[in-house]
Specification:
With about 400 residues, the chain is mainly beta. It contains one helix and 25 strands.
């Protein structure tokens, strides 16, 4: 015999309960792109959610509620007695009115569904019925780009109340990173190794300055190719953060005298990757004292020091050319960057685009020359060719390219 309070039990007395059993977010396509650092699915289902971070602009958000109220509470003959009911809605933490939005009232802790299975010529019909937990769709909330919300269900049972909440964050805005490099210290003259201190401030707010999902981890290190993506380094854990700032002491750099590019990128809890923040770090080694020349012997001329070898110019930096073309009708076709140089990405200097707001990204380009970008394809279904000249590689986005 089931114990009092179990689901599926006999009618009895027990404490009413309310909780969220699951939360499911569906998208038209899995969120992805150059600024997405994690793998997302087209449908994401979470069991017994408490705090949830999702990418916004979805198709639908569905919640399933696990509610239990004694059956006897719904069976009362008292003239003034009010049966229990449930209020379901969501709160906006940025709304000072604390008003429940998109609220609905349910008079039962279950929902009944009936469907016609078969209708016969003799007039007999077959109906299938199901009794299920309550579910609720939040389409108007799911389509939002950036939003913090508290999903709430409240049981009103006379003077008694039971409730459950889910803290939901929809985040479609990448975070920002700000890298600061401190002075260096030479720690080995013989092996030529120096160390530097660096710090990165990661901020994550939406277009209106409201808090997003929050910065989660950081990638940093030496940018060898100039594309803004560190080739070395490691992720820093949340315990490395102090007041929203990551600090790394003693980043070691060795080798020849040169100017190093240090880059850092921040990833937020929704998986968005920030644009790179980069700084240059000059390594100049302290020269060792020259050995003293021996005194010239009588009748011998002193040996002249060898002519100092002319310093070779430093090699050009490898930087990216990336940005966007002005928004308008859909552009479909090929973007070609010339001249094509060794080790550039993509290797053939071409990209396929098909968007009303097309973007481009060509990496690992020597910065001692200019480049030309050409488009060949269709704009709004009509054949079109465009050319943009004089593009220079740099660490930041190019100015938005006009449509010609």
């Amino acid at each position: 015999e089931p114990k009092d309070g179990e689901r599926g039990r006999k009618i009895g007395r027990f404490a009413p309960t309310a909780r969220y059993a699951s939360l499911t977010m569906t998208y038209a396509a899995a969120p992805k792109g150059p600024n997405m650092a994690v793998q997302w699915e087209k449908e994401n289902r979470l069991i017994h959610p408490k705090k949830v971070v999702l990418v916004g602009e979805g198709l639908n958000l569905r919640t399933e509620l696990a509610l239990d109220v004694p059956a006897t509470d719904f069976q009362t003959d008292a003239p003034n007695a009010k049966p229990p009911y449930f209020i379901v809605g969501w709160l906006d933490p940025n709304d000072n009115r604390n008003a429940l939005k998109d609220s609905s009232v349910y008079l039962s802790d279950r929902q009944y569904r009936a469907s016609l299975v078969q209708a016969r010529d003799d007039g007999r019909i077959t109906i299938e019925s199901k009794v299920e937990d309550l579910s609720r769709d939040w389409q108007s909330l799911a389509i939002r780009r950036d939003q913090r919300a508290t999903l709430q269900v409240k049981l009103v049972r006379g003077r008694q109340r039971a409730s459950a909440e889910v803290d939901l964050t929809l985040d479609s805005t990448p975070p920002r990173a700000q890298l600061v490099i401190g002075p260096g210290t030479e720690i080995s003259k013989t092996k030529r190794i120096a160390k530097f201190d660096l710090s990165v401030r990661g901020s994550d707010t939406d277009r209106r300055g409201r808090d997003g999902s929050g910065a989660r981890w950081l990638i940093y290190g030496i940018d060898e190719t100039g594309d803004g993506r560190p080739e070395q380094g490691r992720e820093l854990a949340p315990e490395d953060i102090r007041d929203g700032v990551w600090r790394r002491r003693g980043l070691k750099v060795g080798g020849i005298e040169s100017r190093h590019d240090i880059a850092a990128r921040v990833v937020d809890r929704a998986g968005w990757l920030s644009e790179p923040s980069a700084e240059q770090m000059d390594v100049r080694w302290t020269p060792d004292p020259r050995p003293t020349q021996p005194a010239a012997s009588a009748g011998m001329a002193a040996t002249k020091p060898a002519e100092k070898e002319a310093a070779k110019p430093p090699p050009p930096k490898r930087l990216p050319i990336f940005g966007a073309i002005k928004k308008g009708s859909t552009m479909r076709g090929t973007l070609t960057l010339s001249p094509v140089v060794p080790k550039m990405t993509p290797a053939n200097g071409t990209l396929q685009i098909g968007s009303g707001t097309p973007t481009y990204n060509f990496g690992n380009l020597p910065d001692n020359q200019t480049y030309t970008l050409k488009f060949d394809g269709t704009v709004g279904g009509s054949r079109k060719a465009m050319t943009w000249e004089g593009l220079k590689p740099k660490r930041t986005k190019q100015d938005e390219l006009p449509r010609k």
